[in-house]
Amino acid sequence: MLKKLLIVILAISAGITYWYYSDNVDNSFENGIVYYNDKNYTKAIQIFEKDSNNANSQYQLGMMYYNGIGVTKDVAKASLWYHRAAARDIADAQNMLGIMYKNGEGVVQDWERAEQWFLDASSRGHIIAQSNLGELYLIDEAKNLLKAEKWNRQAASLGNSKAQYNLGLMYETGQGVIQNLKVALLWYKKSAAQKNAQAQTGLGKLYYEGKGVELNLDQAFQWYKKAAINEGAKSQFYLGTMYYQGQVVEQNFETAIVWFQKAADHNYLPAQNALGSMYLSGTGVEQEFKQAILWFTKASEQNYAKAQLNLGMMYENGQGVEQNTVKAVEWYRKAAQANLAEAQFKLGLMYYDGLGLPQDFAEATVWFKHAAEQGHKKAQNNLGLMYYEGDGVTQDFTKAAEWYEKAAEQGNVDAQVNLAIMYKKGQGVTQDLSKAEEWLIEAVEQGDEYAQDELDELDKLQE
């Protein structure tokens, strides 16, 4: 009797065990993956949620919420699931949390925590995390460039294309390693062979500039084209530039526009500015100021200084928008504060003429000087004029002559004439009619009529 009872208990236990196991299989991670692979995402989500104590299911839920697969994209929920899986040592989840903390997706941006999650995943042999860690150290140089080199090299040696590119970049720029363009070329080629667009672009740049290799525009074009087809925005822009300039290929503005547009659609700011310029001038497209304004604005709002300068000029000239010198000043100032010499010169002019703001010679002088110190020849001439006239600064003929000479040596006609007059009068320099004549001849050869009149007068004095 006791033996029979034991058999019954064992049978009941077996039945309960079988029932539990059967239900667990129906809602297991593996079963969810089957539905996921069949693209029945709704059912897959249901199974993963029922199996949410499983670390792999937690990771899968994080991935689906992160990418919006079968559910509305929700990076905050993705973060919650990734955290659960990461706490149970799922390296993929740890790597994803590193990415999210680095970019501030679904969590408050925190590079310290990003570093820790990448380290956790890297210590488990996660090659992509090792690459991400190397890149994080490379971006945040304060961390340690030696660490950047260590992790990029480790991932690169294991075949990770992004790490190979970053290691090549370090050798090209000399960050954390002794600069070696030939070694950079080697790593770029390894990465480019895996169709890494950044590495293909890097190779194109080396061939274009003749760095580490013999200058070869045809090779540059070929690598840029490969990267451009591979959705590399920078190469799309470079390729468009080569078509625009007619380098290696026949000059073709229409094709340049096509590549600029592709890069601009990828939010590459120089391409957006280039598109704006082409619509402004009507090069390769019908001239359309509104389109120019649109592209300049897109890039300007993302702090691209050259676009801010162009947008300022359109507001100043009333092209595509109602003329507005106040707006022009606003955009010039943004670009000038980004140290763009032409914008500094423009802002100086606005202060000098009192356009869009009160006239202020002292402020004009400040901005002319900023631009002049960067070699802007018009600003150098204008700064010379401010010192000559004593506008906004104490009058100083010596400094006036110095700035005129800098601009004159760069071929600025006004500065050549101004400097000639100072040599003629002996202002700020020792009087020297021969030098005055030399500078006037330089200006005359550029077709300056006033210089010709001055030269004729000088000839009379020397008779």
Low-pLDDT regions: 1-25
Mean pLDDT: 92
Structural class label: mainly alpha
Number of strands: 0
Instruction: Look up the CATH topology of the domain at 340-463.
Output: Serine Threonine Protein Phosphatase 5, Tetratricopeptide repeat
- CATH homologous superfamily title of the domain at 340-463: Tetratricopeptide repeat domain
Output the radius of gyration.
33 Å
| Straight-line N-to-C gap | 145 Å
What is the class of the domain at 340-463 in the CATH system? Mainly Alpha
Order of helices and strands: HHHHHHHHHHHHHHHHHHHHHHHHHH
**Helical proportion?**
over 70%
Total number of helical segments? 26
The CATH architecture name of the domain at 340-463 reads Alpha Horseshoe
Largest sheet geometry: none
Q: Give the overall silhouette.
A: elongated
Strand content: under 5%
In short:
With 463 residues, the protein is mainly α.
Question: Can you offer a commentary on this structure?
Answer:
The chain has about 475 residues and is mostly helical. Among the domains are: about 10-125, Tetratricopeptide repeat domain (Serine Threonine Protein Phosphatase 5, Tetratricopeptide repeat), CATH 1.25.40; about 265-340, Serine Threonine Protein Phosphatase 5, Tetratricopeptide repeat, CATH 1.25.40.10; about 340-463, Serine Threonine Protein Phosphatase 5, Tetratricopeptide repeat (Alpha Horseshoe). Helices cover about 75% and strands about 0% of the residues. Helix 6 (about 90-105) packs parallel to helix 8 (about 125-140). It is elongated. The model is unreliable at about 1-25 (pLDDT under 50).
